[in-house]
Specification:
The chain is α/β, with parallel strands linked by helices. The protein has seven helices and five strands. It starts with a helix and ends in a 16-residue tail after the last helix.
């Protein structure tokens, strides 16, 4: 086992044991210590993810992995094995008064940012894929999804420069990615991702070069 893998294993072990935010529902969710040049960044786990022990484990995940299977034939198992899966917050925030998932507050986001900062420093990715508005806002300021989806942008954080290709959130509650111009912009974003030099290739998942 090389030094980077050992460091990432220790990082994930510490992450899963985190108790910094009292309103969050533990345990913290991790996609595992996958050494990769690509990091996906979700928003926060839902109620199912802590039980199943992995990010994007339920309906939104089926949609997300379906996008990549359509774009380049990559399976969910291949995605999980080759992409480091992070998030803005790693614990389920709980429900709000209306019964929906609570949005993490600014203090929780700031406390949890230490994990993503460490992952960027360890992995030094070439490509980051922020998924959903909250995740995209951690990397770039914007007004509307139409301003950023379908585009590749350069970002520097912690002295490391990498490219981001944002995606909309694959939630069934949001129609954005199922309507125009969202459908077309989503397809543009997926093409940018799967043609990126850092994107993993499989003999059975030949990502289109466009």
């Amino acid at each position: 086992m090389n030094q980077l893998q050992r460091a990432l294993d220790a990082h994930v072990t510490a992450l899963r044991a985190c108790t910094r935010c009292p309103k969050m529902h533990r345990p913290a969710v991790s996609g595992g210590a996958v050494v990769s040049r690509v990091i996906s960044v979700g928003q926060a786990p839902g109620v199912k993810e802590p039980v199943l022990g992995r990010p994007f484990a339920w309906t939104a995940g089926k949609t997300l992995f379906g996008w990549f299977h359509r774009a380049c034939g990559m399976s969910e198992a291949q995605f999980r094995a080759t992409i480091y899966m992070a998030a803005v917050c790693r614990c389920f925030p709980g429900k709000n008064a209306a019964g929906g998932d609570r949005v993490p507050d600014a203090a929780e986001i700031a406390k949890c940012a230490r994990w993503l900062d460490a992952e960027l420093a360890l992995l030094r990715p070439a490509l980051v894929i922020p998924i959903g508005k909250l995740a995209i806002q951690q990397f770039i300021a914007f007004d509307k999804l139409t301003d950023v989806i379908g585009k590749k942008m350069s970002v520097t954080l912690g002295g490391h420069t990498f490219e981001i290709v944002p995606l909309p959130h694959p939630s069934g509650a949001s129609p954005w990615h199922r309507m125009e111009p969202g459908k077309t912009l989503l397809d543009q974003a997926l093409r940018l991702i799967v043609s990126h030099p850092a994107w993993p290739r499989y003999p059975t998942a030949l990502c289109r070069q466009q």
